[in-house]
Structures
1.
Amino acid sequence: MDEHAVRHYLNQVPVEIREAIMELDTPYKWAIYIALTVEGDKYFNQLKKQFNANPKTLTDILKSLVASGLVDRKVKQLVDVGDTNKNYYTTTKLGEKLLMNLYEVVLPPLLVGEPQSAHVEIIEPAASEPEEIHIPRQNLAFDLPENHELLKIQLEGART
């Protein structure tokens, strides 16, 4: 491969982001990273118990996540520095933003920009064909005639 071309494209994304992503190379790292991001700070023993993990394996995973910049190892009080039983792990701002942005890319928001007005018109469908109504916003109330037993609603851009 052309090293110049590789460097050209790699330089367009900060090394911190590339390294953070590359460290998430196993399901175990992803699981611990997600647990810390979603559930908050945890001590080593809490993670060990939660994942029924071998201490060496867990130590290696946490060191990797700390080195990536996604997770920090902290102590609550200055006097606890050096006491490994008082260390806890927390997601960094980079770690929080990474997961949040991955969700936003994969699952875009339901509504982008200002709500649009919606007009719903119900036309009698053929006997065997369900009716489709396209609604461009989330909150909409309308009355259906009593003779409609089946109504198919398609929500574009909706998360499930």
Note: The longest helix spans residues 55-68.
2.
Amino acid sequence: MLRVSAKKQLHKALLSIGCNIDALVKISFAVESLKKTFPIVRVSSLYESEAVGVSGNNFLNIAVRIETELNIPDLFKFVRNVESQAGRDRTEGILESSGLDIDILTYDDCVGEFDGLRLPRKSFENFAYVLLPLSELEPNLLHPKLNKTYLQLWQEFDKRDQRIWLAK
């Protein structure tokens, strides 16, 4: 008897991960959590940047590509759980230093609001700490709304206001 297996659809999600408190340990924890859960994980280089809009230490940031069978709400719950496991306290004020922060930037080519999550993530192309790692990871991929590649967006980015460099 021939068995037909139902192959589940894999969705591509791009994530931004950043932290400025015990950052290397927490970002490593996040990447390992993703690798244990998702079949394909690609990670950019690690970048350091000055804090933008918050007080505190410099941030470490990476971009990550995963492929997942999870739908958008379940992926959102998953990343929030990883943040919590890494000690993220969401009761902190928004202008304070940040524990582990994992943002879902894109999910396939979805555009709109999905269970309270806006995709692509609002205005992420305005932040060097997101755009540079993303342009390294997926230089030829088109932004779902702007119809430009991430490399084009980085090349057009005004780099005078936000300092970012490869972490040592």
Note: The beta strands are 11-19, 40-43, 47-49, 59-68, 101-107, 112-114, 117-119, 164-166.
